[in-house]
Specification:
The complex is a heterodimer of chains A (about 600) and B (about 475). Chain A has a 4-stranded antiparallel β-sheet with strand order 5-4-6-7. A two-stranded antiparallel sheet of chain A has the order 2-3. A two-stranded antiparallel sheet of chain A has the order 8-9. Chain A has about 600 residues and is α+β, with helices and mostly antiparallel strands. The radius of gyration of chain A is 34 Å and the shape is elongated. In chain A, about 30% of the residues are buried. The longest helix of chain A is centred in the last third of the chain and has 37 residues. In chain A, helix 10 packs antiparallel against helix 12, helix 13 packs antiparallel against helix 15 and helix 14 packs antiparallel against helix 15. By secondary structure, chain B is an alpha/beta fold. Chain B has a domain of about 50 residues. Chain B has 16 helices and 13 strands. Chain B has a 10-stranded mixed β-sheet with strand order 9-8-7-6-5-4-10-11-12-13. In chain B, strand 10 and strand 11 form a beta hairpin. In chain B, helix 9 packs parallel to helix 14 and helix 10 packs across helix 14. The radius of gyration of chain B is 22 Å and the shape is globular. The N terminus and C terminus of chain B are likely disordered. The chains are: A alpha+beta (about 600), B alpha/beta (about 475). Chains A and B meet through strand 1 and helix 2 of A and strand 2, strand 3, helix 1, helix 2 and helix 10 of B. Bound molecules: iron/sulfur cluster (2 copies). The site of one iron/sulfur cluster has 13 residues of chain B, from helix 13.
């Protein structure tokens, strides 16, 4: 924003609630947090946050109805009449005279209600239109169908006809309602209730807490565990990381580095089994015997842990960004730019390291053969290893793109021309805390290599740590806020990568350090060889396409990105073939 | 749980000058919410500015704390009409209809008492120079409460309690352990009786600690007791005023006898309550010394009334006392940073003030005296609180017959909005108008009120940052408290 714009803004005195009474005042104008979309099951089951029929049970001031869809007497039954309802005593301005006339009508109806003779809504009238709540044959509409008609009423004056239905056979069902109303029919002139306040959106206070959800399951008790459509189960955590005592946290994210705190446990575990729980089993039925019982859930649901960022919390919560946000910001945007360019080089580098390692692992088909007899899980393990490597490598490619996005956003913000940073990759791994940088090497996926990958992705070390000053800088006013978000995302994904590699380490360690059975013997190929040269050309071509592609906003460029993607798949098969012949792609050759 | 009367501004409420209000939620919860507020003509100031960085605005009626921008604070300070109007719109939200303010200006229906203290021994083995209890005899002869009286008072307390509620039984004196048998018997009796009507029961005792024996330690450990020990600081500080009749000090015997309990408190909470006299206003040192002696909670209160005028705080002393409180609070913050928050607040004056500010407590009375809390004298008659037992001006019931009309007669004119100069004091709903016992005895003096306001001002200013730094102190998880 320029200074001119700033000075045109009206002076607004901001004021921030700090204690509970102050905060409460700012929360009370509105509906409870549980009514907001973000606290609903939303994406899984939109619309199931409350039972809409409950809203329409009070569509008419002073009346509470039930929609009866099963049994002998179908339709819209009057459950309760309250001529003294607040909205009738203090009606909205436009309905004052209607309310005045309606109250005696309601009182008269109320006097005639009895348990023996239920009353039903028999017809609706709005804007000169009249709907009888009967079908073509004259039979009473069932509650669900009638409810749809009532839903179609607009806010505004409405007239209802309500009729007693004495026990059969006085008026056999199926008879059309005679157009000259039988004398016992009562006419009510009112309006369709407006369910929320037009100004604030606050629900009409007539609805009692719990009323709108009363016909749903009870999530905190049995349904929470047993809901057969996994509706309720969808909005609670299932498999989580255990809480870590605060003092033990060693990563800036508040996560521990110790493997015992990286196992995944069942959130709904039986609280009486043991303090320390074993790893959650892979399926819901497997876990069932170790879960809290109905009784325990009823008694102790409040002990279930709060889960933040996938981890149970104990005591106070340290945001993931805590350490990052305390880093020292760069003093100029040039410095910031320089660092992002460096980081892009690093993302590029680690992509190559992971890809090289990926192709050093035998294919699942080969594993079937090799493992037969001695290593029964070899095929599964290499499948997992290859998936992890590919996934993380793809993640790093994504980061490369985001880093360019950061550069682009930054260029926009400070009015500089944008230059993509795709090449060259860094060739030196930066120093982890307390160590020296060292030249990077393409290497097969031995346990040593894997240990290095784990270190690279550990959030305080290598790359993510490098983002700290970037996020700290972008957090300052003057930078577009979405850039901070983007940079934080990159940093946070490192933790996922770290965990993947940790899992992989555990999986592969039984195969040993020396010539593990899951590896091919692969050496960097000689660029002079024609097929290796062709692979390198393909790699360079992809980079050119990316450079074009990162010039955002242009059709042509989107096309280039799509082309790059296709070229990547081609390179992937080519690399696989080469690897089977013992050749790795010497990705560094173009830069050395 | 706090060791003061529970009033945020209670550095002066003299609940520590010898005996102590039973603490806990019961006597302090002023929950009445009378419907319509009477139309009041002139109301006192409705907001208060707390200078600092960032500046704060305190909305008096709901004790709501807001942070504001410096420019806005300056405009409010200068009474800029636009700024004031803007703040008034915030106030209107805070006091929105549908969220009635607490019963600030009218006394609602009185609750049945949920806490009593039994003055089991009208005598004391010490002869402290500032003791209002006048060696525990309250001006009368040294007497002890008979067992039947104690049991009857417990019956009366439980008679009105509903299943699921909790009550509190406190033991005071004099020195309550001079009547050990009645203390032990009453604990057993009340526990059994309460269990039979599904009511929870807690206990408290205020003792000078010199008579605690192994059986008492066992009793305190095994029951939900709050043990408040009247101990003033390190050995020299303490022995200066708390001495035996022969003049010898009592500190060593207190600490020696309490050691087992301090080391292994079991279900009880042991706190120290120091009375600050004008000859030594170094509060931080007292807190430090008591922590070193093993107390995990320490509260202080100034000597304001008592038999020996030489030790009572007057005039200029209040400013010095405030400096002492602030220094002790700052020391507490340093300690929390260094040692962590697992043990909660050590300096309970700060803890209480912070908790009340956090919750936004707004009260029309200073404490639960005569409201949810009563004291019983040796004959079974009811007084407004432990500090007024035996004083006919505070009598609110004959033996076994606490009188609601008498309590109402006592309280109604004492609502803070009916007091001068409280009506025009910004701190009125945090302070509640000051300890009844002291006000009747010594009136309200400016120095003392400036202290209350100064302390609250300091605590308000410190609150937002402390809440940010130590969130767990403001939303403690019960499990932690139990294990700490
Ligand atoms: S004037 Fe009243 S309310 Fe204000 S500090 Fe003094 S006693 Fe408390
Ligand atoms: S009146 Fe009694 S209970 Fe209230 S503050 Fe004074 S001493 Fe404490």
């Amino acid at each position: 924003m320029t200074d001119d714009q700033a000075s045109e803004q009206p002076m607004v005195n901001r004021i921030f609630p700090r204690n509970l009474t102050a905060e409460a005042a700012y929360n009370v104008l509105g509906n409870p947090p549980s009514t907001r979309p973000e606290s609903g099951v939303a994406n899984c089951f939109p619309g199931l946050e409350y039972d809409h029929r409950n809203l329409d049970c009070r569509f008419f001031p002073g009346l509470e109805v039930v929609y009866v869809a099963q049994g002998a007497a179908l339709g819209v039954r009057i459950r309760n009449v309250d001529p003294g309802e607040n909205i009738l005593v203090r009606p909205p301005a436009e309905y004052v005279s209607i309310a005045q006339a309606l109250r005696p009508q309601l009182r008269a109806l109320s006097a005639r209600l009895s348990a023996a003779t239920p009353w039903f809504v028999s017809a609706l009238e709005q804007s000169g239109k009249r709907i009888e709540l009967v079908d073509d044959t004259g039979a009473d509409l069932d509650g669900v169908t009638a409810w749809r008609l009532i839903r179609s009423l607009r806010p505004g004056p409405v007239t209802l006809l309500v009729t007693p239905r004495p026990a059969p056979p006085a008026q056999p069902p199926g008879q059309p309602v005679p157009s000259d109303q039988p004398p016992q029919t009562v006419r009510l002139d009112g309006w369709r209730r407006s369910y929320t306040d037009p100004q604030t959106g606050v629900l009409d206070p007539t609805y009692q807490p719990g009323e709108l959800t009363q016909s749903l399951c009870s999530p905190w008790t049995h349904d929470f565990r047993d809901c057969s459509c996994t509706y309720w189960a969808a909005n609670h955590p299932d498999i989580v990381f255990p809480a870590v005592p605060r003092a033990e946290r060693t990563q800036p994210s508040g996560a521990p580095t110790e493997a015992s705190e990286q196992i995944r446990i069942n959130w709904l575990r039986d609280p009486d089994v043991a303090e320390v729980h074993g790893q959650a089993l892979p399926s819901q039925p497997d876990n069932r015997p170790f879960e809290a019982s109905y009784f325990q859930i009823n008694q102790r649901w409040q002990d279930l842990s709060i889960v933040l960022e996938g981890r149970e919390t104990e005591g106070s919560y340290v945001p993931r960004s805590a350490a990052r946000d305390q880093a020292v910001p760069f003093s100029t945007s040039d410095e910031l730019r320089g660092r992002i360019v460096q980081l892009a080089g690093l993302e590029h580098l680690v992509t190559l390291l992971y890809l090289y390692a990926l192709f050093s692992v035998i294919s699942p088909a080969q594993a079937q053969e090799r493992g037969a007899g001695r290593w029964p899980t070899l095929a599964d393990d290499v499948t997992f290893a290859r998936n992890v490597l590919l996934e993380v490598a793809t993640g790093e490619m994504q980061h490369l793109r985001w880093a360019n996005h950061l550069l682009w956003g930054l260029a926009e913000a400070i009015g500089h021309p944008f230059e993509p940073a795709v090449v060259p990759p860094a060739l030196v791994l930066p120093a982890p805390p307390g160590g020296d940088g060292r030249p990077a090497q393409l290497a097969p996926l031995t346990l040593d290599t894997l240990a290095l990958f784990v270190d690279i992705e550990r959030s305080s070390a290598y790359i993510d740590g490098q983002y700290a000053r970037v996020t700290a800088t972008l957090r300052q006013p003057g930078y577009p806020p979405h850039l901070y978000q983007l940079a934080s995302n990159i940093a946070e994904e490192g933790e996922e990568h770290f965990l993947h590699f940790r899992d992989l380490q555990r999986l592969l360690s039984p195969y040993g350090e020396k010539d593990p059975v899951y590896l091919r013997s692969v050496r960097p190929g000689d660029p002079a060889q024609p097929e290796i040269g062709a692979a390198l050309d393909a790699y360079r071509h992809i980079l050119t396409l990316l450079e074009t592609g990162y010039q955002l906003g242009d059709r042509q460029n989107q096309k280039a990105l799509a082309e790059a993607r296709t070229a990547m798949f081609a390179l992937q098969s080519r690399a696989e073939q080469l690897a089977q012949q013992g050749h790795g792609i010497p990705f560094f050759a173009p830069w050395q | 749980m706090s060791a003061s009367c529970g009033t945020a501004g209670c550095p002066t409420a003299g609940c520590g000058s010898g005996t102590q209000a039973p603490t806990g939620p019961v006597p302090l919860a002023l929950t009445s919410r009378p419907g319509a507020l009477p139309a009041t003509a002139a109301r006192g100031p409705w907001f208060h500015l707390v200078e600092g960085c960032p500046p704060l605005v305190f909305l008096v009626e709901r004790s709501a704390v807001f942070e504001v921008e410096p420019g806005f604070a300056a405009a409010l300070h200068a009474s800029d009409p636009e700024a004031v109007a803007q703040l008034a719109s915030v106030r209107d939200v805070v006091e929105a209809p549908g969220h009635p303010p607490e019963g600030l200006r009218e006394l609602g229906p009185l609750p049945a008492p949920r806490a009593i203290s039994l003055n089991v021994a009208q005598s004391c083995n010490l002869a402290c120079s500032y003791c209002y209890a006048d060696e525990g005899r309250f001006g009368g002869a040294a007497r002890r409460m008979p067992l039947a009286v104690a049991r009857r008072a417990v019956d009366e307390l439980l008679r009105t309690a509903l299943p699921g509620e909790a009550v509190l039984v406190g033991f005071i004196g004099g020195e309550p352990l001079l009547n050990r048998a009645v203390v032990h018997d009453t604990v057993a009796y009340a526990t059994a009786r309460a269990a039979s009507c599904s009511v929870g029961v807690g206990f408290s005792i205020t003792t000078n600690g010199t008579l605690v024996r192994a059986v008492d330690v066992a009793l305190f450990r095994a029951n939900p007791f709050t043990v408040t020990v009247s101990v003033d600081g390190g050995v020299q500080t303490h022995d200066r005023h708390r001495h035996r009749r022969n003049g010898s000090g009592s500190w060593h015997s207190v600490i020696e006898r309490l050691h087992p309990l301090l080391d292994e408190p079991g279900r009880c909470l042991v706190s120290a309550r120091a009375t600050v006299t004008r000859d030594d206003l170094d509060i931080a040192r007292r807190v430090r010394d008591l922590a070193a002696a093993g107390f995990r909670e320490v509260g202080v209160s100034p000597a304001r009334t008592g038999p020996d005028p030489r030790v009572l705080l007057v005039g200029e002393d209040w400013a010095e006392y405030l400096r002492g409180l602030v220094a002790a609070a700052e020391a507490e913050i340093v300690r929390l940073r260094r040692d962590g928050t697992r043990g909660g607040w050590l300096f309970s004056n700060l803890g209480t003030a912070m908790t009340e500010i956090h919750r936004g407590t707004a009260r029309p009375l200073p404490c639960g005296a005569a409201y949810g809390y009563l004291s019983v004298d040796v004959d079974g008659a009811y007084s407004t609180c432990h500090r007024t037992v035996g004083d006919p001006r505070f009598l609110v019931g004959a033996p076994a017959a606490p009188s609601a009309p008498a309590r109402r007669r006592f309280l109604a004119p004492r609502l803070v909005d009916r007091q001068e100069p409280c009506r025009s004091c910004w701190a009125r709903y945090l302070c509640g108008g000051g300890c009844h016992a002291e006000v009747v005895q010594a009136g309200r003096d400016n120095g003392n009120c400036d202290l209350i306001r100064g302390w609250l001002d300091y605590c308000l200013g410190r609150y937002p940052a402390l809440r940010g730094e130590f969130p767990e102190l403001f939303n403690p998880t019960p499990a932690k408290v139990a294990t700490s």
